[in-house]
Write a structure and sequence with these properties.
single chain, 126 residues, mainly alpha, 4 helices
Length: 126
């Protein structure tokens, strides 16, 4: 059986980070093109403040907006993916530590994930 090396795990983590960043850049760029195609000729009204529309506030609405090709929702989806990329990296690190049977770093990584998820769910993420 071929033993997993530390460099293999580091390579996989690097691949996850690169893929997440490049994919999110592509999605945001595509969303910007869709947005400009649909709204590029509109004149901006800076006299009244219009907040964030409802279709980019929740995950379900963002997904629905992406499926209906709304530019802002596609951009928001790319930004969410960019924010999720380091969290996915921490998950990959935890899996790597589990495979290496390094229980100290596994527990630390799971604690970090727990802190991230508690912060996200409580609304105190910054």
């Amino acid at each position: 059986m071929n033993k997993l090396k530390d460099t293999d795990i580091q390579s996989a983590i690097g691949w996850v980070l690169r893929t997440g960043v490049f994919l999110s850049i592509g999605i945001v760029l595509f969303g910007g093109i869709v947005y400009l195609y649909r709204h590029g000729n509109e004149i901006a009204d800076y006299h009244t403040f219009k907040g964030v529309p409802d279709f980019v506030r929740t995950g379900a609405n963002i997904l629905h907006g992406i499926l209906t090709f709304r530019g802002r929702a596609v951009i928001q989806g790319g930004i969410v993916l960019l924010i999720a990329t380091p969290i996915i990296r921490v998950l990959f690190s935890a899996v790597g530590f589990i495979l290496e049977k390094d229980y100290l770093y596994t527990s630390i990584t799971i604690l970090v994930l727990l802190i991230i998820f508690i912060s996200m769910l409580s609304g105190h993420a910054g």
